[in-house]
Amino acid sequence: MIKKIHFYFDFISPYAYFAWRKLPTLAKKYNREIEAHPIVFGKLLDKWGQLGPAEIPPKNSWLNQYCLRYAALNGFEFNPPKTHPFNPLTALRMSLKEVSGDEQLRVIDAIFKGGWSHGADLGDSTSLISLLKKHSINGESLSQKVLESDIKDLLINETNRAIEKGIFGVPTIIVDDNLFWGNDQMDHIELLLNGKDPLDRQNLDNQERPRAIDRKAFKKLDKD
After folding, report:
1. Are 172 and 162 in contact (CB under 8 A)?
2. Rounded CA separation 202/182 (Å)
């Protein structure tokens, strides 16, 4: 049985697109199968009490710089979606295995590239249908399937299972029960796949430290 690389993503994240661009080559090199898991990033943020990068103005400005620089260094066009943040639910539902079937990876690739390299509106069904059609994928059929209530439940369940696994952001890549977060983890993933992971797991177990203070305590300290 071919071993898998589990890829958890939301189209709303440029970092997920960057990781996706490298993942197929890495999977092929190490004879791995990609199992893609569309999940709702906003639900992760709600669960873990975080804000998204676009919700923090200075971080959003930094993100734009990073993305343009990353694309230039890696030789591809960066032209983000027409609006951001956008509602990713239709795109995510279209990319569920139960909806797109054997075309799943092609659907994911088309949506990612259409949005983040060609400026498509990934929150608009008509736009999604159009960009899929360019890749000879029946986007109209997919757009009808995603309206079914059980398909909506599938995305909810996929997101909930991700949360149960301790996934807190996108992209997350899991290889042999090892969790990697972020597009900057590809070199670390390859070391693991190549049997050269330098992680000292015994030392890792010794890294936990007792907490001396919590963030909420600072509010009280400021008043004292």
Report:
1. yes
2. 24
The C-alpha atoms of residue 220 and residue 143 are separated, in whole angstroms, by: 51
pLDDT, tens digit (0-9, with 9 covering 90-100), for 30-64: 999 999 999 999 999 999 999 999 899 999 999 99
Q: Which amino acid is at 19?
A: A
Burial letters for 25-64: b for 16+ Cβ neighbours within 10 Å, e otherwise? Answer: ebbeebebebebbbbbbbbbeeeeeeebbeeeeeeeeebe
Q: Which of 152, 189, 195, 197 is nearest to 171 (CA)?
A: 189
Task: Kindly report, residue by residue over 111-132, the tens digit of the pLDDT.
Answer: 999 999 999 999 999 999 999 9
Are 68 and 14 spatial neighbours (Cβ–Cβ below 8 Å)?
Answer: no
Sign of CA pseudo-dihedral 71, 180, 34, 88: negative
- Domain 4-199 CATH (choose: 3.40.30.10, 3.30.70.270, 3.30.70.980, 3.30.70.940): 3.40.30.10
User: Any idea which residue has 């943020």 for tokens?
Assistant: 45
pTM: 0.94
Q: How many CB atoms lie within 10 A of CB 93?
A: 22
Given a contact cutoff of 8 angstroms between Cβ atoms, the answer to whether 93 and 152 are in contact is: yes
Q: What is the C-alpha to C-alpha distance for residues 178 and 180, in angstroms, rounded to an integer?
A: 7
